[in-house]
Design a protein that fits this description.
Length: 316
C-alpha cells in the first residue's frame, strides 16, 4: 500500500511544497502515469499533473490501474483563497455532500459525495502548528482547519493541505518549506514514526464529526487542537441547507425540515466511519450556530441514525 501525494504545476502553492519535498533525501523518478510524472520515496508516491487540482478525478484508481499498487491514502497540496486575504496554512477533508443531483459543483467533486476523511487530519493540524511556530511563520500565518468542501472526486481517505490566501503567500518559500516538512515528518520519511496512523492507534477510539459553524470551524478547532483527538468530516452551516416549511419552529423535527442537510450528515457520517475502522464516531455540534428549530431537527436525525453526541471531554 502506498501514500499518494498530489501536486499541480499550475498552482504555486502546490508546486512550491512539492519542490521543497523533492529536495529532501531519498527520492527517485517513478513511473509516468497518463503523461503525469511521479517520484518515489519508500512507500510514498508524489504525482505531478498540469491541470486544476480539483478537476483530476480518481487519481487513486488511475494510479492503481497503471502501477498495480494499492493507494491507501491521498494528500493534495494546494492553494487556499479567502476574501480576507489573510495568510494561512490549512488542512481539511473534501466533498460536496449537500449538493443535489444535477447541480454543478463550483470546484470539483460530485453532488452528494464526500471522500473518506484522511485520519491524519487532526494529528497533522497539530504537527503543522508546531512546525509553523518553530519556523517563526506564526502568528503571521494562521494555522487552521477548514470545513469539508470541493473536489476532486476520489474514493481513498483524503486530505488537502493548503497555503493561503493570495499569490504573495502562495509563493512564500517559508510556507512551502513548512508544508514540505509536514509531509516529510508526518509520513515518517525522515526515519521517525509517521504521525496520525490510525492503524497503529491503540488508545483513543472516538472520532469527532463536526456539525455546524463557520468555514473555519472554531468550536471544533478548540477540541481538535488538543493532543490525541481524531477528526472526520466537518460540516459547516453552508453544507447543512435547512428549509422551514412553515410548521411551528418550536416543534420542528427532522421530518418537517426540508433541504439536503440530512443527506449531508448521512454521507459525512458513513465516510468518516469507513475511514476509521473500529472507531466510534461522535457528533460534535456548534450549538450556537443553530436556531432552536434547526438544532432540534439535527438532534432528532442524529438519534434516528444512532449517532451519539460528544461533549468536548469525550474526544480526549
Amino acid at each position: 500500500m502506498v501514500t499518494l501525494v498530489v501536486a499541480t504545476t499550475t498552482d504555486p502553492a502546490s508546486v512550491g511544497p512539492a519542490s521543497a519535498l523533492l529536495a529532501m533525501p531519498g527520492w527517485h523518478p517513478g513511473p509516468l502515469v497518463q503523461d503525469m510524472e511521479s517520484f518515489v520515496n519508500r512507500e510514498v508516491r508524489l504525482l505531478k499533473h498540469d491541470n486544476s487540482i480539483v478537476r483530476e478525478d480518481h487519481l487513486d484508481r488511475r494510479w492503481e490501474e497503471a502501477t498495480g499498487e494499492f493507494v491507501d491514502e491521498v494528500i493534495f497540496l494546494s492553494k487556499h483563497t479567502a476574501a480576507s486575504n489573510r495568510p494561512a496554512l490549512t488542512v481539511h477533508p473534501i466533498g460536496v455532500p449537500h449538493l443535489r443531483e444535477g447541480e454543478v459543483p463550483a470546484a470539483g467533486g460530485k453532488p452528494g459525495w464526500a471522500a473518506p476523511p484522511n485520519p491524519r487530519i487532526g494529528p497533522w493540524l497539530r504537527l503543522l502548528k508546531t512546525i509553523a511556530e518553530s519556523h517563526n511563520i506564526t502568528p503571521e500565518f494562521e494555522v487552521t482547519l477548514e470545513a469539508t468542501h470541493h473536489g476532486p472526486e476520489i474514493n481513498s481517505p483524503t486530505m488537502f493541505v493548503e497555503i493561503g490566501s493570495t499569490e504573495e503567500y502562495w509563493k512564500r518559500q517559508d510556507a512551502a518549506q513548512a508544508i514540505a516538512l509536514l509531509v516529510w515528518e508526518g509520513l515518517g520519511l525522515g526515519g521517525g514514526g509517521a504521525v496520525g496512523d490510525w492503524s497503529r492507534n491503540s488508545g483513543q477510539k472516538k472520532v469527532l464529526l463536526g456539525i455546524g459553524g463557520g468555514h473555519y470551524v472554531p468550536r471544533h478547532m478548540d477540541i481538535i487542537l488538543k493532543d490525541g483527538v481524531w477528526v472526520g468530516h466537518l460540516l459547516s452551516g453552508y453544507s447543512l441547507p435547512m428549509e422551514d416549511h412553515g410548521q411551528s419552529k418550536a416543534q420542528a423535527n427532522a421530518e418537517g425540515v426540508g433541504g439536503t442537510w440530512r443527506e449531508s450528515i448521512k454521507v459525512a457520517f458513513e465516510t468518516t466511519k469507513a475511514a476509521f475502522p473500529g472507531g466510534e464516531v461522535l457528533a460534535h455540534l456548534d450549538h450556537k450556530s443553530f436556531k432552536s428549530w434547526q438544532k432540534n431537527a439535527v438532534l432528532g436525525f442524529l438519534a434516528e441514525l444512532n449517532i451519539k453526541i460528544g461533549k468536548p471531554g469525550d474526544f480526549c
